[in-house]
Amino acid sequence: MILKNVLDMLDPEHAKRVSLLSMDLARSLNLSEQDVERIGYGAHYHDIGKISIPASILESGIQLTEHEFEIMKRHVEYGLSILSVQTSEEMDAAKVIVGTHHERWDGTGYPNRLKGEEIPLYGRIVSICDTYDALTSKRSYKSAWPIDEALAYINNQKGKAFDPYLTEVFLQMIQEGALV
Ligand SMILES: [Fe+2]
Ligand SMILES: [Fe+2]
Would you indicate the residue range of the signal peptide (predicted)? Predict the structure, then answer.
């Protein structure tokens, strides 16, 4: 499948871990197995739009200028446009995740500044797992954070970036060692 090859050019291990973590969180929330599968499928694609972002911007991480960050934000719309070539119930879940994984609970995220439960549940789930994996992974511009520091950060973002209830369930899940 062509889209899968495109994904492999990005960061397939990150995509895989975010997918597994998101499925775990969905199960911890007692969602149906169908939801769990769709979230797992869709989470693979969350950053697919980064294929259209210049490597120099992808690699500069947190040191992005304001202008570069504006370009980086476009990976959401690029992702939606890449996925628009396919329609299926699974792919529709992927589109929801691509479109909303950078929204924030407090309404300051992008691209649509959705707030609270206006943000689809799938996007709220992937947002936490994406951030956690990004923090605990080594990137070209940063070392991997220790798990306790990453958890403290996630906890600090409860009600700011993240849905407070999902944050609680996520923290408990990681602390219980479901997937570390
Ligand atoms: Fe993203
Ligand atoms: Fe990501």
Answer: none
